[in-house]
Each structure stands twice: as structure tokens, then as C-alpha cells.
Amino acid sequence: MSTTLSAVRVTDHVYWVGAVDGQLRDFHGYSTERGSSYNAFLVMGDAPVLIDTVKAPFMDEMMARIASVCPPETIDRIVSNHSEMDHTGCLPEVIARVRPREVLASKNGVAALSAHFGALDDVRAVADGERIDVGGLTLSFYETRMLHWPDSMVTYLAEDKLLFSQDAFGMHLASTERFDDALDRAVLEFEAGKYFANILMPYAGIIPRALAKLSALEFSIIAPDHGPVWRRDPRWILDAYARWSEQAPTRKAVIVYDTMWESTAVMAQTIADGIEAGGAEPKLMRLSEHTRAEVATELLEAGSLVVGSPTLNNGVFPTVADVLTYLKGLRPKNLVGAAFGSYGWSGEAVEQLNEYLRAMKVALVSDGLKVAYVPGDEDLEACHRLGRTIGAAVLERAHAEHRAL
Ligand code: FEO
Q1: Which are the contacts of 106, defined by CB distance < 8 A and separation ≥ 6?
Q2: CA of 190 relative to ligand 1 center, distance in Å
Q3: What is the pLDDT of residues 88-116, one digit of tens each?
Q4: How many Å apart are CA 48 and CA 43, to the nearest integer?
């Protein structure tokens, strides 16, 4: 391993010793066009602590960065905030090399590590709120269950007012820069929102409670396990999480569709025109051009989900079924919607789309609109009318939300 791989100093006591994965394009189904990083940190009191590790193929990169700060065998403890494999894949090997005094995880984390790797030496569960001295510095641990796994916890370094937040407040973004203040703000905000939508949205209901629990701590720096360290304005990402977790309806209507011979595409465009005529903001997303993760990102701050599919072999077009399966798992809230699509002779897709939307608790504004083969003038008027109905419903909800503020 090259000796040019060095740690990056975060504070007087903390170093980033993670790995950058610029080639990553898919993270368990989430498209990652900008790659990612797996962040690990060294806390350098008199007894060094390694906070989290990296995905298995990147272990040598992490070890080289650690060695630029201290001999790895001097690490006294390892903290495992979260047991998903992008942060623990190399943990057994690291333990074998470093032989730390103990490995600390939440109670559920200890069980998850055992389920993944079998018995590991000297793994100990920390209690929620437990505080320990690590060679003159103070670490405390706070469970954040289901954000986003049952084992998840965060670690706080009191002397530096620094929160090691594991996946929370992270993003998939590979870069040579390690801090938010060195990166393009628009990219940061987009990727942070995309991460929330694709990883944390299912747990939006419990995020305010977690934020309230952490609000007793004073942060200057938030160091997540992916993407940059927040040091310029950590308040921004905390406030964004509070806002995103509400999923308040906006004027945006996301129209997700695919098409066989352009008929469903023509319907989608006409519905979009109707939505705009109704005063709302259509966002057309053809699935041959957009990934499921991009659709989820658009839905994070939207008021409507409108879905179109042709009928193919008595069912929904595969790309549309794919994205609906994915979105259903993410449990977006506070949406109105409708289904539409063209068909040849059977036309089951629209009712099947309705079933998906009902299962997602999307409030349907129509029974759905289906058109045989190619839409004629009357069909297009019906599409425009449906768009106006959606637009009016979206506006009403967005205004009601605004009045409630
Ligand atoms: Fe970055 Fe849930 O692992």
C-alpha cells in the first residue's frame, strides 16, 4: 500500500482515516453517480480509539492512513457505531491485527456483529448514555435505534463538541475534500437530501425524537460515516433533517412513467401540462432516463406522485413495478396521486398501479385513466383534466400546510 495515503486532521484530537470509493455506482439499489466514502476516525487521546472501520476491500487504505498517525497496534479501543458491512466488513481482520483492549457497540450492535461474524474477541455492549475516559478524552454513546438499523448508535467527543454520527447526516459523495466548506454547496445539499430520501425516509417518523435526544449535546462538528465532515454550519443539516422528516406537501407533482410506443409518454406530458395549468409544478420522470433513487429524491419534497404504465402481458411495465416496489419500502408520506396508462386489449396496469398507490397510502384523486392504443383528442382532454385535478389538490394541500405554519 502506498505510503502517500495519509490521515486528514479534523481537530487537535481527531483524524479522518477512511477510504474513498470513487468507482461506486450502486449502493444496494441506490444509484451513486458521485461515488462514496467510508469514513473512519481516530481519536488521539493517550489511549487511541478507532471510530468505525471501512468496507472490506478498503482495509489496507484505512490501515495506511492510521499508520500515518500512530502505530495501528497502539489502538486501545474500537467503536462500532453501526454493523452494516460498509463499516464493519474488515472489522474481524482489523481486530486480529490491532488486538484492541475492547470493541464497543450498542447492545443490538453486539448481537449484529455476532450474527455477521460469529464470536469476536472482547466485544462489549455500551449502555445508552454511557460515558468513558479514553486517555484524557471523553466519549459518550447514544442509541439511535432504526436510524437506520436496530443497532445504530452515535458517539460524542465532549472535548471537541464532535458527533460521530455513523450513517446519519451522511451522503454518498467521493471527493478529495473532507469538509463541507470545501465543497459545492448545491452538490452537498442535493446529495444529503438524496441520502435522506433513499436511506432514512422510512424512519422519518422517529427522527424528531432522535434529534430531540441529541439536542442536549452541543455540536461544533458532525462527522458521518459517508461524505464530508460538517464543520461550517452543522446546524444546517440538523434543520434539514427536521424539515425532511416532516415531509410537508409542496406544489411539486412527480410524474413517474415508462412507455412502450410513446402513448403513455404523450399522456404523461398532457397530464403535466394540466398540472401546470392548475398552478402546480410537474416533474416528469421517464424511467428509461431516471433511476429509482432519483425518483425517491424528487419525492422527498413533493405533494403528489402520479404514475403511468402501459399494460404489458396483463401487468405493469417492469421498470414501473421496480420503482413502485422501491418507493413502497421507503414509505413516503402526505402525497396525493393518480394512475394512468395506455393499453392494447386488456388494460390491467392502471388498476394494479392503483393498488400500489393505495398500499402506499397515496390519496387518489381519480380512479385512474387508461387509453386504448393511441390517445385521441378526447383522451388528451381527459388527461389534461386529470392534470388540472391533481394540480388543484396539490395546491390545496400545499396552501393548507403553509397556513398551518
Ligand atoms: Fe453506511 Fe447503513 O451503512
Answers
A1: 125, 126, 128, 141, 143, 145, 151, 152, 153
A2: 19
A3: 999 999 999 999 999 999 999 999 999 99
A4: 6
Beta strands in 13-117 (DSSP E): 14-16, 19-21, 26-27, 30-31, 36-38, 41-43, 49-51, 77-79, 102-105
- Architecture of domain 252-398 in CATH? 3-Layer(aba) Sandwich (3.40)
Which residue in the list 82, 172, 290, 384 is annotated as catalytic? 82
Name residues contacting ligand 1 (CB within 6 A). 82, 84, 86-87, 148, 167, 225-226
DSSP letter for each residue of 169-209: T------S--BGGGS-HHHHHHHHHHHIIIIIGGGGGGHHH
167 is catalytic: yes
What homologous superfamily does CATH list for 8-246?
Ribonuclease Z/Hydroxyacylglutathione hydrolase-like (3.60.15.10)
399 an active-site residue? no
- Grid coordinates representing 320 are 414501473
167 CA closest ligand 1 atom index: 1
Per DSSP bridges, beta strands 19-21 and 36-38 are: antiparallel
Residue with CA at minimum distance from ligand 1 atom 3: 84
pLDDT(1) > 70: no
pTM exceeds 0.70, yes or no: yes
Name every residue whose Cβ is closer than 8 Å to that of residue 258 and which is 6 or more positions away in sequence: 264, 286, 287, 288, 308, 309, 310, 317, 319, 320
252-398 shares the fold of 8-246: no
For the cut 90, the answer to whether the pLDDT of residue 404 exceeds it is no
Task: Over range 149-159, report the average pLDDT.
Answer: 98
- How far does residue 233's CA lie from ligand 1's centre (Å)? 23
CA of 90 to the centre of ligand 1 (A): 14
121 has pLDDT over 90: no
Q: Residue 161 C-alpha to ligand 1 middle, in angstroms?
A: 23
Q: Where are the domains of the chain?
A: 8-246, 252-398
